[in-house]
Specification:
Blueprint: E1 3-9, H1 15-28, E2 32-46, H2 54-60, E3 63-69, E4 75-80, E5 86-89, H3 92-98, E6 103-118, E7 121-130, E8 133-143, H4 153-163, E9 170-172, H5 190-203
Antiparallel strand pairs: 1-8, 1-9, 2-3, 2-6, 3-4, 4-5, 6-7, 7-8
């Protein structure tokens, strides 16, 4: 499947910059529009009823992150704070929805955009909307010839520079400690991509 890099263009201006990317990719880079794509991201807070003070509960409670990607429609990827990334069947979403006494849904976001093929790269582009609040432009980039995590960072940097203007303010991590969450440092999988989404949303305060 290659390796993946996520970028959030923080000061993008909605459809104007979405259109800029689309035209630049198809006309200048000769990329091909391969259709729509989507992902969903949910955050749950543990609902420990035994805590005596709500303030302490909020401080000490854990979060559960759940990612569902269109390229893996039958699976979801979950991680509890301080734990490992787990791949589960799609039914996990239904199970979590029924465990309201244990996990309370804090945020649910669906992101929809367009996918492009550009040589050895796949670029997925979408606007990030949290309710009615615009949070920038999301770029998900796959580089197909490489399958080793953290091994294509310079190529990703060059590719990103080729598709966004110099004035773009970017949020991006090119290197992750995957082993700390139970993922391989030898072979990239969809779980690695899901972990990148969890970290992007967490570090950028998107929930």
């Amino acid at each position: 499947m290659g390796v993946t890099c996520l970028v959030r263009w923080k000061n993008a201006t909605g459809m104007r910059d979405f259109t800029f990317i689309a035209e630049h990719v198809t006309k200048t880079l000769h990329g091909k529009n391969t259709g729509p794509w989507s992902l969903s991201f949910k955050v749950f807070r543990d609902n420990n009823q035994n805590r005596r003070q709500q303030q302490i509960a909020l401080k000490d409670s854990k979060l559960l992150y759940q990612v569902s990607l269109a390229q893996q429609p039958g699976h979801v990827y979950c991680m509890v704070d301080g734990s490992v990334v787990v791949e589960a069947e799609k039914e996990m979403e239904l199970i979590l929805s029924r465990l309201k006494n244990l996990w309370q849904l804090r945020q649910s976001v669906t992101i929809e955009g367009t996918s492009y093929e550009i040589g050895d790269f796949t670029l997925r582009v979408a606007n990030i909307l949290l309710g009615s609040t615009y949070k920038g432009l999301l770029l998900e980039i796959d580089y197909h010839p490489c399958s080793t995590p953290n091994n294509a960072n310079e190529l990703f940097k060059e590719f990103v520079e080729s598709i966004v203007p110099p004035t773009a303010q970017l949020s991006c991590e090119y290197e992750y400690n995957y082993e700390s969450v139970g993922l391989s440092n030898q072979e990239f999988t969809t779980a690695h991509t899901s972990y990148q989404y969890m970290m992007l949303f967490k570090n950028d305060g998107l929930f």
